[in-house]
Hints:
By secondary structure, this protein is α+β, with helices and mostly antiparallel strands. 37% of the residues lie in helices and 27% in strands. It has helices at residues 13-35, 41-50, 102-116, 131-139, 165-171, and strands at residues 3-7, 61-68, 71-80, 85-93, 121-126, 143-145, 156-161. The protein is globular, with a radius of gyration of 16 Å. Keywords: Acyltransferase, Transferase.
Amino acid sequence: MTWTIAPEPYDSPDAAALWRAYYTEVSDRWYLLHEGHRTDPGELERGIAAQAGAELTPPGGRLLVGRYDGEPAGSAGVRLLDADTAELTRVFVVEGVRGRGGAALLVAAAEEAAHALGARRIVLDTRSDLVEARALYARLGYTETGPHNDDPYAEHWFRKELEPVAARAVNRP
């Protein structure tokens, strides 16, 4: 059983299914925590449609889909915020394959994609209730910093400087 990660159009059937799973999970977690119920189905559909992912396409972005043993199992996206800064988004691994290294591989692939887009740093935001995500980012060298956006759901912001190409080549096993 192995992971493979490759760029994929945001609107491919597999990418769209992963987006739906991700959005449903994080939305339901928020509503269950704050209001005691799952996301209203109509609101869920509007949210999924409103954030389809068109910004995750070249030349300013990229969506990566991870497959575990050939099956779509995770995603990560990057988009340029400016010439030097990319934002990491949509990092998600389906429940059945969590704990098998996919999240770290997806983030590493997203960092490579951000560097290929010209970014020198990568930023992200997350919520307090997404404790697994915050632990992952800290483990992967991200530093908590001040806000880089005004997303009403963001409670934690992280940043990581991307290594120059020569340094990454030297540091690889």
